[in-house]
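Before the break, one more example. Copy the sequence into your notebook; we will annotate it together after we see the structure.
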Amino acid sequence: MKPSLILFLVSLCNMFLCTSALAQNEEELQDSAEVPETQDNESEIEQIIVQGERTRFALRMEIERAETDVYNLFNELNSNDDFDVTCEEIVYTGSLIPQRTCMAAFLREEMAYQTQTFVQSIPLGDGLGAPGGGVLLDFETVQGEVRQKAEAMEQEMIRLAVENPDFAAMLVRLSRLIGLLEERDDN
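Here is what the structure looks like once it is written out:
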């Protein structure tokens, strides 16, 4: 056989194979496009729900939001402005890491008063380290002075939880979140 005839036959075979492959692909595309409408309408799409474990950080952020919600509602509902709770980020001496601190107004005022009393009791000239250089804070005294207000605030919170189901639900949610975090910390 001549080489030109062989090339012609090979080309013809290649062309035949390509055309048949293209025709077959077109038929497959048409078959897949012709899905009966009843099958689409009747079948439901499966949903797969994957629930992952919350990270400790996400759990702490959720607790912080829940605390804020509880305190905001408590501040709206309570009958005494001394019980209003405010939260703030405080960077304590010796640290660069801010810590969230939530405190009732009466406790914040008592701490400010005790600090002011201490600073004013420091004798001028001798300095803080000198003997008799200022009255040290007595936390037991402070605690005794605010104990009655703290107990009254606790009673107010219990009363509001009994009277207001939304507030009670928020408290339950907050306690569950804190329980989850403590459980995770124990493991």
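The beta strands are 85-90, 99-104. The first strand starts at residue 85 and ends at 90. Try to locate both features in your own notes.
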